[in-house]
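Record 1 of the preview.
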Amino acid sequence: MSDDPLSHFDAQGRAHMVDVGAKPPADREAVALGSLRLHPDTLARITQGTAAKGDVLGVARVAGIQGAKRTADLIPLCHPLPLTHLAVEFAPDPDNARLWIRATARTTGPTGVEMEALTAVAAAALTVYDMCKAMDRAIVIGSTFLLHKRGGRSGPWTHPDLEHLQPPAHVAWR
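->
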């Protein structure tokens, strides 16, 4: 945990957008991860492409990309960023009835892309829920968190509990 003051508040405690105008552009990357817990039959239908609403993962991937591109419209104090790359991947984990979601965002600019990666995961997860709620209203959208980031003044960072937060090694990303 950092002792740095909260940068989105001015000296009077009012919320404001941080001025990044004097910061030099840097190559930046952020990777976020999240998961959904689903009924095993729901997960099977998603992975087999037999869900009634069609290609759940394809639509969720596009929703994640759109969400990342609209992050500044959703999160009030985020800067609009020109994304140079955004990837959304899924890892079905039938042994644990989970669908893992990973988003990687990149930019070259004066501020990081953590919020874009997190928003991509959240939008993809919500889309899976929306497309599958008729067959499984008990879907649980699990933790969404920053896995790691690089670039900028603060340098690289990796979640300290990395080994316990990722899908099992045998689960393949697609």
